[in-house]
Amino acid sequence: MLGPDGVGGGTAVRSPKTAELVAGTLRRMVVDGQLKDGDFLPNEAELMAHFGVSRPTLREAVRVLESERLVEVRRGSRTGARVRVPGPEIVARPAGLLLELSGATIADLMTARAGIEPMAARLLAESGTDEAFDELDQMLADHVPSGWQTGRLAETTGDFHQRLVELSGNATLTIIAGMLQEITVRHTAFAFKEGRPVSKADFDKLMRSYQRLMQLLRSGDGAAAEAHWRTHLDVARNLMLEGLENVKVRDVMG
After folding, report:
1. Using 50, 70 and 90 to split pLDDT, how confident is the model at 1?
2. What DSSP state is assigned to residue 14?
């Protein structure tokens, strides 16, 4: 039976505010590509006329998008709101906080990572382009070695792992990996700092594993690439976690 508000059980259904409807329309324009990263929204007068809303309502709609980090507003600027299409970093910070609050360990994180990257390696082997493989090869030739030489190996290897997933072409895997990226890099740097410096022999072994992955990717053997990368991550996890098995995410994030 309908309640006095016209809803069964007397629970009211809240109608969206006008500002939320305007924000929703603008959001859809970004998603559909009508508004691209770097574009400025039309000026206030145009938007007010287009949507038939007041200035306060329009500004509330823009604040909604700003809170979602879909637009950037420079206060005092006459250029207005600019579209900023976010990357995985938009969920990285909140996810890191949730992991800290849940008491997650670094072991949890690395296990999750081992479930993501091998599948990305399979997808990349099966559908990757020469351009994608060349880009990864270039990172192994320059970027990763520079990290070992400058003490930033955690960051440069992290970049390689993230780019591997991005080039797989799977948007969902990319977002999840990006979400975990900062925490993973911080853990790796934390482990190095805690007495696991990377020797020349260890670095050479790491590079051989990376180069074997590249061979498998270029061969198009998805199953072999997935298996190799899973083994690589398992070995790395065991080495990185030795003596640090119960370290919490919060201890690494600081």
Report:
1. very low
2. P
Tokens of 191: 């482990």
- CA-nearest of 132, 241, 129 to 196 is 241
* Locus of tokens 């400058």: 150
Digit-coded pLDDT (tens) for 3-17: 444 445 555 545 568
Let me know the angle formed at the C-alpha of 191 by 186 and 197, rounded to the nearest 5 degrees: 120
Q: For the chain, where are the alpha helices, taking DSSP H only?
A: 18-31, 44-51, 55-67, 89-102, 106-127, 130-138, 144-150, 153-167, 171-193, 200-219, 222-241, 249-253
Task: Count CB-CB contacts under 10 A for residue 111.
Answer: 14
Q: What is the mean pLDDT of the chain?
A: 84
User: Nearest to residue 129, comparing CAs of 169, 160, 157?
Assistant: 169
d(CA 144, CA 53): 53
pTM listed for this prediction: 0.69
Distances in Å between the Cα of 156 and the Cα atoms of 45, 64, 77, 99, 145 are 47, 36, 37, 24, 8
